[in-house]
Structures are given as structure tokens and as C-alpha cells.
Design goal:
Largest sheet: 7 strands, mixed
Radius of gyration: 16 Å
Number of helices: 5
CATH class: Alpha Beta
Order of helices and strands: EHEHEHEHEEEHEE
Helix content: 25-40%
Strand content: 5-15%
Number of domains: 1
Length: 222
């Protein structure tokens, strides 16, 4: 099975890589630190990496993402909105994955089941937003969910066996989640998150393409 992990140097990406390797697979790791390098902010690098690994891909996992930068926390109020922070959130959490879909979806296997999965978040669900706050992250993940939905419709026209989904990994214990670890959320290790998400991916059907699905396999309304 030809598998690519994008964002393989991050916590969840590295866990995907380790878990798949332990299962006997030989996943291809892509990040800013691999050769070829893949940088979400550089479409040319995305196109080159996709070209390098050819076609007939069985599984592409986008494990990239951005929550907050140094000295910058998710906004609790509109008073904290910052155009540069908004733009960077969209660049990493929506535009970058959209470009991954542009260059990798055409390379999925057409005549057997194949999957493109990108990490989204429950907070990107508009109907599930009852708390407010986290403006940039919520909006960028909502945009990603719409991009996945739209791409899945086009993908279905080309291959009825191919699947494009957004996955919610839950709250994973990484440096990005440290400030929120005491908020009562269920924290998972990256290893457990990867195992759960791979179980979800293994069970996906073409009818679930275009959905946002959590790490327990439950569909989250957009």
C-alpha cells in the first residue's frame, strides 16, 4: 500500500509514521525537513513532492496544523483579532491543505479504494459552536471542512472508490495543547490518536467521503 504522511515531523504525524511502520507498511514521510521538502506556504514544493512520488496512491494523510504561535493565544474576544494571525491560521489550516488536495487528489488510485485524510477539528463545526472564541482557528478549520466537502464532490466524479475526509483527532498531548490541558478535555497521546484515527480510516466507505469524522468514528455536523 503506497502511503504518504504529510507533516511527519509533528507529534501526530510522527505517531502515524511509527504506527504504520509497526504494522509493516513503508510510509513515505514528507515535511519541511525531508528530501524533497514540502512546505505548506510554498505551492511549488507541494507540487514537486507530489510529482516525485508519482500516482496510484492508496493513502495520503495530512497531519499538518497550526493553533497559535509564540506569545499568541487563541482569541477569546473580537478585540484580540489580529490580521496577521488570521492570515497565518488560514494559510496553514485551510490554504495549505487545499493545495495538498489540488496536487495529491489527482494522484490517488482510481480503480481501488483510496483515501485522502486531513486533520481538522470539532471547533470548526459551525453548528457545534456554543462557546465562541478561538476566532482564527475556528474559521480556518471551518474553511477546511468546506474545502474537503467541495473536493470530495469533484473526486467522486473521477473515482467512486476514492475518499476525501476531514478527521477530528480530539485533544492530543503536544506542546500546542499544553495551555489547555487543565480545561477538562480528554487528552490523548499522539500514539493513541494515531491508532484511533487509523482505525477510522480503515473503516471508511465512499459514502463517508466529504464528512468530518471524529477519532471514535462519529460524524460531526458541519
Amino acid at each position: 500500500m503506497k502511503t504518504i504522511i504529510i507533516g511527519a515531523s509533528g507529534g501526530v504525524g510522527a505517531a502515524f509514521l511509527a504506527e504504520l511502520t509497526q504494522r509493516g507498511a513503508k510510509p513515505i514521510a514528507l515535511s519541511r525537513h525531508t528530501t524533497p521538502a514540502l512546505d505548506l506556504l510554498d505551492e511549488a514544493s507541494i507540487a514537486a513532492a507530489a510529482e516525485h512520488y508519482g500516482t496510484d496512491l492508496d493513502l495520503v494523510i495530512d497531519a499538518t496544523g497550526f493553533l497559535h504561535g509564540p506569545g499568541m493565544m487563541p482569541e477569546r474576544s473580537w478585540k484580540q483579532l489580529n490580521p496577521a494571525h488570521l492570515a497565518h491560521n488560514f494559510a496553514i489550516n485551510a490554504i495549505g491543505p487545499a493545495l495538498l488536495m489540488k496536487h495529491f487528489l489527482p494522484r490517488l488510485a482510481r480503480h481501488r479504494r483510496s483515501v485522502f485524510a486531513t486533520l481538522s477539528a470539532r471547533v470548526g463545526s459551525i453548528s457545534d459552536n456554543n462557546l465562541g472564541g478561538w476566532y482564527s482557528y475556528r474559521a480556518a478549520k471551518s474553511a477546511l471542512n468546506q474545502l474537503v466537502r467541495t473536493a470530495s464532490i469533484e473526486l467522486r466524479r473521477q473515482s467512486k472508490l476514492s475518499i476525501c475526509v476531514a478527521l477530528h483527532p480530539g485533544t492530543v498531548a503536544t506542546p500546542l495543547s499544553d495551555p489547555f490541558a487543565k480545561s477538562g478535555l480528554e487528552l490523548q497521546t499522539p500514539e493513541l490518536a494515531a491508532q484511533r484515527l487509523l482505525t477510522v480510516i480503515d473503516g471508511l466507505t465512499p459514502e463517508q467521503s466529504g464528512h468530518l469524522i471524529d477519532h471514535h468514528g462519529v460524524t460531526i455536523p458541519y
